[in-house]
Amino acid sequence: MFTANADEEEINNFYRVVSANVRKYRNEKNMSQLELALTIGQKGNAFFNYAENNTKNKHFNLEHLYKIAKALDIPISKFFEE
């Protein structure tokens, strides 16, 4: 039998760190959620808002993070720093 190497609390903390960093760097570039959402190909900012605020079980995937990093002109690794 296998056991998970990360529990739910640890995963939720990971999502919080990523979301907080997206918000931090978006704000540093003075971009609105809507502006950044449209830049990465979203039709509106609803999903982006949920993912950035960790609500409705929505999270950024790797493609989102890649596009966001390009739009903000930062290394993608910045999103994973605690």
What's the gist of this structure?
With 82 residues, this protein is an all-alpha fold. It contains four helices and no strands.
What does this structure look like?
This protein is mostly helical and 82 residues long. The protein has 4 helices and no strands. The chain has helices spanning 8-28, 33-39, 46-52, 62-72. The protein is globular, with a radius of gyration of 13 Å. The model has no long low-confidence stretch (mean pLDDT 95).
Keywords:
82 residues; mainly alpha
Q: How is the secondary structure organized here?
A:
Blueprint: H1 8-28, H2 33-39, H3 46-52, H4 62-72
Specify the structural class.
mainly alpha
The Cα radius of gyration reads 13 Å
Determine the number of helices (DSSP H or I, runs of at least 4 residues): 4
Mean pLDDT over the residues: 95
Characterize the largest beta sheet: strand count, sense, and whether it forms a barrel. Answer: none
What is the terminal-to-terminal distance?
32 Å
Name the overall outline.
Answer: globular
Uncertain spans, ≥5 residues at pLDDT below 50?
Answer: none
What is the beta-strand fraction? under 5%
Order of helices and strands: HHHH
Indicate the percent of residues in helices.
55-70%
- List how many beta strands DSSP finds: 0
